UniProtKB/TrEMBL annotation:
It is found in: Cell outer membrane. Keywords: Cell outer membrane, Membrane, Signal. Belongs to the SusD family. This is RagB/SusD family nutrient uptake outer membrane protein. Residues 79-218 form the SusD-like N-terminal domain. The keyword Signal applies. Its main location: membrane. CDD domains: SusD.
Length: 461
């Protein structure tokens, strides 16, 4: 039911009897394995596979100004040149896979709420995890596609005919789910029993819910609330702290709020496996490298350029060609000890959220203080802002060089701050395409439109 990585992840033997929908949520261990399966699916997905939100750094990096493409894979070229079409197979896969995960979360919410046999602690934690994961996936759906069907049940007859709900309505549900998850989830990090504490940060807890909620509130221009929520996370210094650049993405890092445990046998993270260019060079398997736009955005002396960017030189051509690639995750060798975990949420983002929220409330000194926490670690000087716009521009730049190739931040930032047209009208022609403002939303695939007569296409497709 959950794939070969399940035992490694939760350290449980597979059930020896068949499992039916009726009894999944009658047993603590089996019910727990449902949400574990969601995390396994995320962790095991290849960055280039188009099978989960895990591919966000790749797809949005291609769509935006972070990555350059090597090769002629037609799906990747469509994202890269901002020329997606509704008949592109990648558009179909991405949409449907995210909704598959949401369906699993809906089924979990229904089953957990109806269960009379789960222990109270397990029931509460699982319900929080299911709502957190539903909110997490809807956050990306609504930011990639705009208005989307808001599916909250497992009723197939209703779900297949759902029209698109306004983005504001979807966000209301995301906020509701995260607020309820925050109340339900554990304060510390728990193991597969959902009761005992652990050093592993691989199951969401209430701090993950707070962190994602802070982001969602910022995106919805609820600046005072976003500041307050980010502050709650920042102030929990017993669990979280800003670490040196090369320690951030390690297993059980104190900067990590939520991580994914590697489950693909013989490998550390899928990020390193995809982004680190091997001695054999770029290929259809390792098809991307960092763009000139991103490389030129680093200030002189920025230690992130030295720590998080590496290079490969192709000496088989004349003149030699050097490619630069993301090096946040460094362990790409097969069968190396597992020392790195994919980090989904981390503390640095909370400082950047609070910096922006404070700037939008004209607390420019507080904003500058928060930004300096991130800049100081990178070896850069403090910036004092003369205006709100100056602060917002500086924060956008800092987010670009701090969060590059992490979970789609750059692409979503350009859109929400209304910078996407100005940036992409310059960048897209360099990638061989023509930018249209409608390209900032991905298309819904023809298959989905044909299956649901109440579903409408995004403009421009």
């Amino acid at each position: 039911m959950l794939g070969s990585g399940c035992k490694k992840f939760i350290e449980l033997d597979a059930p020896k009897t068949s499992i039916t929908k009726a009894n999944v949520y009658s047993n603590n261990e089996i019910a727990t394995s449902v949400l574990t399966g969601v995390y396994i699916k995320m962790s095991s997905a290849g960055i280039t596979s188009l099978t989960s939100v895990k591919t966000l750094p790749f797809l949005t990096g291609l769509s935006g100004d972070e990555l350059s493409l090597f090769g002629t894979n037609s799906t990747y070229v469509a994202y890269y040149s901002n020329s997606l079409a509704a008949n592109n197979i990648g558009a179909k896969t991405y949409w449907s896979e995210i909704y598959n995960t949401i369906y699993t979360c809906n089924e979990a919410v229904e089953g957990i709420e109806a269960s009379a046999t789960l222990s109270p602690a397990v029931k509460q934690q699982l319900l929080g995890e299911a709502k957190f994961m539903r909110a997490f996936n809807y956050f990306y759906l609504v930011n990639l596609y705009g208005d989307v069907p808001l599916v909250l049940s497992t009723d197939y007859t209703v779900n297949t005919l759902k029209p698109r709900s306004p983005k504001s309505e979807v966000y209301q549900q995301i906020i509701k789910d995260l607020q309820e998850a925050e109340l339900a989830l554990s304060s510390g990090f728990v193991d597969n029993t959902l009761v005992n504490s652990t050093n592993e940060r691989v199951r969401p807890n209430k701090w993950a819910a707070k962190a994602l909620l802070a982001r969602v509130l910022l995106y919805n221009q609820k600046y005072a609330e976003a500041e307050a929520k980010a502050t709650e996370v920042i102030n929990n210094s017993s669990l979280f702290s800003i670490l040196p650049l090369n320690d951030i993405f390690l297993k059980n890092s104190k900067e990590a709020i939520w991580q994914l445990q590697p489950v693909n046998t013989g490998w550390n993270t899928e990020e390193a496996r995809t982004f680190v260019i091997p001695s054999t060079g770029l290929s259809d398997i390792i098809p991307v490298y960092l763009s000139n736009q991103l490389l030129s955005s680093f200030e002189t002396g920025d230690q992130r350029r030295a720590s998080w960017v590496n290079s490969f030189t192709n000496t088989t051509v004349t003149p030699n060609v050097t490619y630069y690639y993301p090096y946040k995750y460094k362990v790409s060798a097969r069968n190396a000890p597992v020392t790195e975990y994919s980090t989904v949420l981390r503390l640095a983002e909370q400082y950047l959220i609070r910096a922006e929220a404070r700037a939008m409330q004209n607390n420019l000194s507080g904003s500058a203080d928060d930004l300096f926490v991130i800049r100081q670690r990178a070896g850069l000087a403090k910036i004092n802002f003369a205006s709100q716009q100056e602060a917002v521009d500086a924060i956008l730049h800092e987010r670009q060089v701090e969060l590059f190739t992490e979970w789609g931040h750059r692409w979503l930032d350009l859109k929400r701050l209304n910078k996407v047209d100005a940036i992409m009208s310059v960048v897209t022609p360099l990638k061989g395409g023509i930018w249209n403002s409608t390209d900032q939303l991905y298309p819904i695939q023809f298959y989905e439109l044909n299956a649901n007569p109440n579903l409408t296409q995004n403009p421009g497709y």
